[in-house]
Amino acid sequence: MARKRHDRPPRQPMPERPADERVRDFEEVPLGYDEEAARLEASRCLHCRKPRCVDGCPVGVHIPEFLALTAEGRFVEAARKIRETNVFPAICGRVCPQDEQCELQCVLGVSDDPVAIGRLERFVADYDRQHGEPEEMGAPEPTGRSVAIVGSGPAGMACAADLARMGHRVTIFELFHEPGGVLRYGIPRFRLPRAVLDDEIEYLRRLGVEIRTNFVVGRTATVDELLEEYQAVFVSAGAGLPRFLGIPGENLLGVSSANEFLTRVNLMRAYKFPEYDTPVHCGNDVIVVGGGNVAMDAARSARRLGAERVTVVYRRSREEMPARAEEAQHAEEEGIRLELLAAPVEFIGDEEMWVRAVRCVRMELGQPDASGRRKPIPIEGSEFELPCDTAIVAIGSRPHTLLRDTTPGLEMDRTGQIVADLASGATRREGVFAGGDIVTGSATVIEAMGAGRRAAEAIDEYLRSRQDSQEEA
Fold first, then answer.
1. What are phi and psi of 40, to 5 degrees?
2. H or E stretch including 314?
3. CA-based R_g, the chain, Å
């Protein structure tokens, strides 16, 4: 721990379930603070005159204010303070990378451990859910304008919440049979319990947002058809198509994308087979390719599905891994091995076309590439094999082409992402806005929410200016 310069208590540890216990189920791993620990941790805040932590938050949560309320034991008020700018604190307190955002900017972190902002956000949100009275919404004056939201992930939900608070009629269109997007089908329950997600979605409904599921925009109705009923459309359909390695053997049985694997496990409850008739293949020797949070989620899920050996193969070093440090640490605690500085070059199958091994090559790090990380370079003659009977590829995703193919004039870049102004979400099509992963590529939940909130402001301005023009005419 760094040298302390302030007379404050140490950062409070988060209790967690033991690794040998938690790998047997999909229940949540961290147990959360109790009231005493929460107040003590919140009391560590320096209440800076210029709080850099707020600048580090993509949605601008009033962090010092909610921390002060928490330190006083006013937990429900603290949760409501967060909801002024972030309507989903119980989600963000669990899955957002605070160590790279608000906590990274914490001034206390210069000489000590930063305030555990994320853990406190989770605590007050859970306390409000369990002890607080339902919040009075106070219906805003209806504007008479309506907005369609394509996709119910974090960007879509954040945009919908803000627009509903502004008085607009908002409808979310979701292709799956339950809302939540990547929060529901991508993040395992041991990181985001479904009861928490469902409560946050219920809050959205209480704001007056309508959610229509089993609705495929581009098939059930096109964006142009939505514009016949709604004055604006916000596209936040995410990036749901997996990327693959493009190496021999990728079509073998037992090789799948993390998207497919996690969707079966999370959305379709494959972990409860045969209670839910959605089997998922998971052998005893699993290889997961990738180094991000999705790779860790897939590896830890495979471990819980009974895999005896799970190995994550990543082409860079531990320091360059994009996964949260906490997620990688949890994975290792659960017996998952990290095979670093290695990259697959071929999947090897048996005579029945089932994967039986992955051939890899050792890597060394060169100069930084466009991502700012040191570029991995193959070492000639360093090939080796890892046995496996299941391989899961978790190297990112890209948007589906359906919206592009069914929406004339909606500009896409060469990767299939919608071209939109990052400050407003405005696209080349009048009345059509976009944000989240479908614009930026895979990013964090809170970054997607920030895009949704910025788009909501721009959409509100667009609708009001359009209304003023019509009244003048």
1. -65, -45
2. strand 309-314
3. 23
| Cβ count near 5 (within 10 Å) | 10
Q: How far apart are CA 469 and CA 473, in angstroms?
A: 6
Over residues 314-369, the pLDDT tens digits come to 999 998 899 988 999 999 999 999 999 999 999 999 999 999 999 999 999 998 87
Nearest-angstrom CA–CA distance, 88 and 25 = 25
User: Which residue, among 469, 435, 467, 463, has the nearest Cα to 450 in the 3D structure?
Assistant: 435
Burial of 359 (0-12, 13-18, 19+ CB in 10 A): middle
d(CA 375, CA 368): 5
- Cβ partners under 8 Å of residue 276, min gap 6: 268, 269, 270
The CA-atom distances, in angstroms, between 307 and each of 23, 44, 301, 355 are 10, 42, 9, 15
What b-and-e string marks burial along 201-212, b requiring 16 or more CB atoms within 10 Å of the CB? bebbeebbbebe
Task: State the Cα–Cα distance between residues 380 and 421, nearest whole angstrom.
Answer: 44
Work out the number of other CB atoms within 10 angstroms of the CB of residue 147: 29
Judged by DSSP in three states, 274 sits in coil
What lies within 8 Å, CB to CB, of 430 at 6+ separation is none
- What's the one-letter identity of residue 146? S
Structure tokens of 416?
Answer: 């299939």
Cis peptide before 274 (omega within 30 of 0): yes
Helices 117-131 and 35-42 cross at an angle (nearest 10°) of 140
User: 191-195, 319-323, 364-368, 468-472: lowest mean pLDDT where?
Assistant: 468-472
Q: What is the pLDDT of residues 122-155, one digit of tens each?
A: 999 999 989 877 766 667 888 999 999 999 999 9
Contact criterion met (CB below 8 Å) for 425 and 234:
yes
Q: What order of strands is seen across the sheet that includes strand 169-173?
A: 210-212, 169-173, 146-150, 232-235, 432-434
Cβ neighbours of residue 36 under 8 Å, at least 6 residues apart? none
Q: Which fold has domain 19-131?
A: Fumarate Reductase Iron-sulfur Protein; Chain B, domain 2 (1.10.1060)
Please tell me the CATH code under which domain 243-397 is placed: 3.50.50.60
Topology (CATH level 3) of domain 146-240+400-472: FAD/NAD(P)-binding domain (3.50.50)
Give long-range contacts, CB 8 A cutoff, 24+ apart: 58-63.
Answer: 58/101, 58/444, 58/446, 58/447, 58/449, 58/450, 59/85, 59/86, 59/158, 59/446, 59/449, 59/450, 59/453, 60/85, 61/85, 61/86, 61/102, 61/121, 63/102, 63/117
Are 437 and 418 in contact, with CB atoms under 8 Å apart? no
Domain range summary for the chain, segments of one domain joined by +: 19-131, 146-240+400-472, 243-397
CA atoms within 13 A on the CB side of 162: 23
Same fold, 146-240+400-472 and 243-397: yes
